[in-house]
Each structure stands twice: as structure tokens, then as C-alpha cells.
Design a protein that fits this description.
The protein has about 475 residues and is an alpha+beta fold. It folds into 4 domains: about 120 residues, no CATH class; about 140 residues, 3-Layer(aba) Sandwich (YojJ-like (1); about 90 residues, RNA Polymerase Alpha Subunit, Chain A, domain 2 (Beta Complex); about 80 residues, Beta Complex (RNA Polymerase Alpha Subunit, Chain A, domain 2). It contains 15 helices and 23 strands. The strands form 4 sheets. Strands 9, 12, 15, 17, 18, 19, 21, 22 and 23 form a 9-stranded mixed beta sheet that branches. It has a 7-stranded mixed beta sheet with strand order 2-4-3-1-5-6-7, sandwiched between helices.
Amino acid sequence: MQSLRELFDSMSVLNVVDILILTALIYFVAAWVKGTRAFQILVTLAGMVLIYFVAARSGLVLTSMLFQYLGAVIIVVLVIVFQPEIREMLDRASPIRFLSGSRPAEVKPEIIDETVRAVAELAGLRIGALIVFRRQDRLDSLMTRGKPLDSLISNEALSMIFQKRSPLHDGAVLIVGERIRAAGCILPLSKDETLDNSYGTRHRAALGLTERSDALCVVVSEERGEVSLVEGRDITNYRKRTDFRQALDRGLALGQTGGAHSESRLLNLVFTNWKLKLISLLIAMALWFAVVGPHSSELGLTVPIQYTNLPAEMEIAGQWMDRVDLRLRGSDTSLANIRPGSVRAVVDLSDVVAGVNFFRITSKNLYLPPGITASEVRPSDLHLNVSVASLKNLPVVPTVIGTLPEKMRVIATPAEVRVKAGQAEMKKVSSVTTDPVNVADLTEKGRITVPVVVKPDGLKIDFVDPMQVVLTLEAEKG
């Protein structure tokens, strides 16, 4: 019990945000595939992940290794098998949909009245019908083979379309705003295996569309003369005309703006499908405690120091510290996943001045993986001797092996190079030389490109420009 209290006490605000984001992702995926074969597969995979964590915690090396390797293969298989579902899910979660600020086309009350009269008439005559109201999501990729129309919504128009002698009766009608945009549309069938067998193809088609979009569908059953409203994964049947009218009005969000509607949406966001949301929260918390967990372990590590933003006119002189020792805290899993280069200390030199500069390495200077903190830095204080760099043009003196022919000389092009170094270092050099060149090779080839060499060895030079020169043999003048 004490351990559990310490577990919760160690959580920070960022940890809570981390768990809530993971909860939302788990719920989104679970709600999307609920009732399909994909849901059963995901439950199986969750069980395998649980077995892996138990095996890893229990020290079952062979079992944990087996499930670890299987996990990499399963990810590839999932992407291949569930490619259509993944594409639809990413399309539904696209941020463009929310950033665009678009709203469903408003449907006037008289349009709803005409629809209700047509639906009641069709239900009384036991004529099947399927009507789709487009709201915010585009339906182009989900509805196919529709006959384009552009007519006003009326009782007569809808009744005529769904008469059995009509060539467009065997399909869905698409309504956008106040217009009938298409008829005879083919919708994707739902893959929900838990759906009641009493529902026919029209109900499965309506559910298949609303599972993948925010569309609202009205279904009239040909066998029972029953009227249903399909939204999301829910099918609601209505016996009374007034109840259906009110439900359709609510579904199309007529006149529902302001605080009351916002409060209703907030309550629906929290309490709708609450069992699945609670399970998602518990799974997210279990994953967080298993993978991240509290800061229960420590690790000593020596990491490199990266010096950045050194002004162009400055130069680090003498010796400097290039590594620092850290004491890191985190969960066993987080510490075990540390890789070379994932932890480093960075010191900003943008404000240095000539002379000795003092720095203190704190947590702000450390780049650490998520879930890892530094409990100790040694040494935490460092100093750097910085001097003003000098730029100087120095003559190039070629290094030649062998005897030059009479009245011949070696010329370097360019004759001078630009050298940058600290002022103290620059006083030690008055010229540069080149790699040794054999006179015979120079005579045969006529010209040779060689690197520039700065002597004496060990002299700290920032750069030499250019780094190579061209040596040629030519006659002396005069």
C-alpha cells in the first residue's frame, strides 16, 4: 500500500497529461474497431503485450525475448492486413477537419417536416428507404455509383425515388443542406458481427457509413415498416412520428448553439460510452506504470559536453572539459533503453568574452530522454579560456624533395592562404608549407595539387583557406 502511494506521489502534471493523451488514443482506436474482427485481434495483441511485461518483470528471459521478436513481426502484419481501416481512421482524425472551422449545412425545419412526412408515408406502405444526411465529413470516398441530382427536398420527391418501379429505389439518397444531391448511392456494409440478425442490408449499409463518418442516416424497413435513425454505431427505432421528428431535429443540430448546447456536448463527451473510456484509462495507466513508472532506479553515466554558438571572432584557448558525469534517475525500463547520444550536455557560448568564462551545468543544459531526470552533475562548474581569433594571410612555402633544374623554381597558386587562429597561436607562425613534392613528379606532370600544412605540429588553427594549393615548375625571371 505504501508502495502504491509512493507511485502516485511521484507523478507530475506532465505524467497526468501523458496518461490522458494515451487514454484518448486507446479509446479512439478501440471505439473505431469495436464490434469488428479487428477488435478481437487487438484484444489478443493486448494480451500478448501483458504477457511480455509479466515475463520481463519476472525474469523469464526466453519468453520475453520471444514476444519481443514477435512484436516487430506483428506490427508489419497489422499495417498490411488493416491498411484500409488505418487509412480511414487517419482520415477521420485529420486535424484539417477541425482547423478548417467548417460547419454542417443548416437544414430548415420545413425540410425536416417534408422528410418526416415522406418517411411516415413510406413506412405505412412498407416501402424500404435509406436517406443520408451529410454533416461535416466528406462522403466522396465512402459512397459510390450515385446518380447526381440537384432537387429540392419534398415529400413527393423522396416518395417517388423509393417507389419500387423507380430505377433509383435500390440505393441511398444523399441530402446536403436543403438539396437532394444524389440517389441510388451504394454504401459500405458494416462489419459489426454483433449486429442483430433482424436488421437487413439497409441497416448494415447505414451503420457502415456512420461508423466511418459523422453522417446521419434514416432507414425505413421494408419488412416491418419500422423507422430507424442511425448515428455512429447506434441504431434507434421509433414508433411515434413526433419522437422521430424530435430525434432528427436534434441530430441535425438545429438551433442548438450557446452554453446549454456546449454543456450538453461536454456531458456527452464524458459519459457517452463511459465503460470503454474507463477501460482505456485503466489500460493507459497500466502501460505508464509498466513502461515509465516512478523514478525508482539510478544510473551513473559519463556524457559528452557540446559547446555551441561560439562567435566567429572567438577561439577556445588551452585545455577544456569535454565530458561530465551524471547520476540519472528513472524506471528500470527507461534507464535500460538509454542509447549512446541520447543523453548529452549542451553549453551555449553565445555570450562569452575574451578571457576566462565560468559556466554552471544544470538541468537546463541537459538533453535527456522522456521519463529520465538528473539527480547529480559532477563537476557542475566549468571554466573556458576564450581569446579573440585573428585572421591573417600567410605566404605558402612549398616543400620540395630533390634538386631543382637550374634557373627553375616552384610556384604555389595561390601564393598566400588565409589562416584563422587565436592571437597567441598566430604569433607562433609566419608562413605555411605543403606536403612534400618530388621534383621528378613535378617535372613529369607539370602541376600537382597538394594540401597546406601549418607548422609547428600541435599548433591550434581554426581554419586554413584554401586547404590545398597547386604547385607548378617555372623558369626564374631575370
